[in-house]
Structure formats: C-alpha cells, structure tokens
Description:
This protein is an alpha/beta fold. It has helices at 57-61, 97-103, 122-135, 148-160, 174-181, 194-207, 219-224, 227-236, 253-267, 288-295, 320-329, 339-353, 359-373, 396-399, 412-420; strands spanning 19-24, 30-31, 46-50, 93-95, 108-112, 140-144, 163-169, 186-190, 211-213, 244-248, 277-283, 333-337, 383-387. It folds into 2 domains: 93-117 and 226-397, 3-Layer(aba) Sandwich (Rossmann fold), CATH 3.40.50.1100; 122-222, Rossmann fold, CATH 3.40.50.1100. The chain has 15 helices and 13 strands. The protein has a 6-stranded mixed beta sheet, with helices on both faces. It has a 4-stranded parallel beta sheet with strand order 8-7-6-9. The chain is globular. It starts with 18 loop residues before the first strand and ends with a helix. It is an enzyme of class 4 (lyase). Belongs to the threonine synthase family.
Amino acid sequence: MSSAVTSAAPTKTLDLGPARALSCRECGHQIPLAAEFACPECFGPLEVAYDFAGVTRERIEAGPKSIWRYASLLPVPTNVTEHPNTEPGLTRLVRAEKLGKALGIKRLWLKDDTGNPTHSFKDRVVAVALAAARELGFTVLACPSTGNLANAVAAAAARAGWRSVVLIPKSLEQAKIQMTAVYGGTLIAVDGNYDDVNRLATELAAEEEDWAFVNVNVRPYYAEGSKTLGYEVAEQLGWRLPGQVVIPVASGSQLTKVDKAFGELGKLGLVEPTPYRVFGAQATGCSPVATAFAEGTDVVRPVRPDTIARSLAIGNPADGPYVLDTVRRTNGAVADVSDAEVVDAIQLLARTEGIFAETAGGVTVACARKLVESGQLDPDADTVLLITGDGLKTLDAVAGHVGPTATVSTSTAEVRRALSG
Length: 421
Ligand SMILES: *Cc1c(COP(=O)(O)O)cnc(C)c1O
Ligand SMILES: [Zn+2]
C-alpha cells in the first residue's frame, strides 16, 4: 500500500477534446468544464475556451465527410466517432450564378444545409451537444424548440439509443410536429409561444438531473456546433474566408459562432485572416435585433413574434447583443423583411437554383436582396448566404402561392391549350 493516504480516489477525467474551460462572455471569469451555462460571478453566458493543438488542413481533409472532420476544433471527446451519433455537415456549397444575377451580386454561393439528416442546420448543434452530454454523464436528450431543433434532437436520440423529451409550442407546423413524433421520443406540445416553452424548459432543467437540454444546460457545447458552418464555408472556398456572409438570426447563436469559426481559422493559420463582413437576417414580424441595429442601441427589446418564419421566431434572443457586437465590429448590418418578401424569395431561390428552402431561407435571400438595394452589401465581394432549412417543412408558406399550371383531361389538345395559355 502506498502511504499517500491523502490522495483523492481517481475520478474519470473529462475528455472534451481541445476544450479547456468555460469562460464568461461578460466578465471573463473561467470555471472548469461542466454542465453550466451562466457565470457564477455575473450570470453572463458561458462559452467554451480551448487549447488547440496539431490542427492542420491536411488532418481535417483526411477526416470524415461530416462535421466530425473538425472534431479537433470542437468540445467533443477525442474519438468522437466511436460513439453512436448523427453525421451532419459537409453539406454542399454551391455557386449561384442565376440567383446572383437576380440579386445583383457578382460572385454568390449558397451553403445548402437542407442536406443534413433532418434537413436543417440544427443537426450540427445537436450532434455536438449529444457528444458532450454523454461525456458529462447525461442519459436523456431534451430541448425546447421552434421545430427544427425538435426534429434534430428526436432523431439524434433515436440513433444514439437515448430517451428524448422535446417541448414545442402547440401551434407549430404539422410537418415539424410529425417529423419529431416519428422518431418515437416523448413530444410535449405546450399551450404557449416559444419564449414560454423556453422558460418551462429552464425550470425543468433545474429539476431533472439526467436531462441534457441541448440549448439550456449544455448550451455552451451545443452552440459550438454552429462553428462547423464557418469551417466548411472556408474549406469549400479553397481555405479562404468569404468577403461577406448573410446569416438568419433566431437566438443569434449561429451568427456569432460562424464569426468565431472564421476568427479561429485565421488565428490558427488555416486561412489568411482577410477581413469579412457579417450580416444578420430577420423577419419583420420578429425582428428585435434588426430594430436595435437600426436604432443604434445595444439593448435588444423583446417582442411578441408574428411571422411565418417560425424557425426564427424567438422574441427574446439570448445572443442578440452579441449579434450586434459582431455585425458592428465587422461593418455588417441586420436587415428584416416582410412575410410577403419571404414567400417571394423562397420562389426566387427555387426557380433560379433548384433549392427549396424553408421560410428561414426565404428570410436570408430576401434580406440579401434588400441589403444590396440599400448599398450595404457589396455587389463585388465574394458573398455566401446560409440556407439553413428545407422547404418541405414549411409547405404552408407557399401553399396559396404555387400550384398546377393547369388541370386538364387526358387530351393532348387541352395540354397544348394549357401550354400556349
Ligand atoms: C434555429 C434556426 C436558425 C437560427 O439559429 P440561432 O442560432 O438560434 O440564431 C436559422 N435557421 C433555421 C432553419 C433554424 O432552425
Ligand atoms: Zn461573468
């Protein structure tokens, strides 16, 4: 027996890859990695801090054809692919010449995240949250959701063999409700809007010790998943940063993390740290960040959402102030567009590029158009629009606007009449 009677029993050390601590975004106070989301000193939001080592383009390029190629830049276990999870990411980045012409942008690309396992970018953040939650000792995957997150959580839990508990506002689109329920977890429709559901989830997270609410108690890890959009855009452009990027804003997390990703790539020497501008896109019916931007304030006043862009309908966006910081620091802007402009833009995108996006994609394309017209987006800069979800989820948005050109009997003459009419 050793005489070291004072040494503590060996505990399993946490393996969250390059993640080293949680750091407060407001006061910089650091705490050890844990399932915490608020700073114990000032209640500011906590964010993952890293010590990166051995990250090279070659290693990334030799990795899996999914977000896991960037595991050495994420708060996930070193051998993350040994555990059951989804494999989102490495969605296509397409050159969009016809849409570019329609919008007046010379070199335009679309990051098409409709191609993820549950057809939105939320698969990225959920896959990272699940990997971290497993390492942190959780056994249930949960979330409050405006829809896409519900789909992603239910699917990832099913694949990992975890129980899921998903809370949604009961007024959600049918497609998003069914597309969550089909994966077999617990789905609870709440009589309230998203902000009510989010409050309920925060109360539950304090009571249910085994539940990882991906966007509440493990939010710092979850949020890092959005960085993969930034890494992919840079890699797919040939390891360089775009001149400007337009990103839809709900809580604002995605926008701030794409900026964080571009910054990391520059600091690590994986890309030239060339200047880039970040633009946010909101629907006018839920545009608290665009309003604060236009008014020149730092204060994001909560609103009651009223828009067809339900996936972006967060009236009290947690990362709103950080979105304002990011767009002001990079000389970008936050725009907002009406529901009618969203529906037009969904059709414009489909008709020019063959991509059917959900309402959030319509918001992004319509805001890009508005930002070019107002002279804020530079028509000569390399521009990327993030198309974050699939149109099949929000068919209602276009239901009254598109349909058959004609209905005919089985007669070639009638078809000809329809063709000439
Ligand atoms: C959630 C969501 C967003 C925005 O995400 P935040 O990080 O909360 O701003 C954008 N597009 C789609 C389709 C979404 O589901
Ligand atoms: Zn703090």
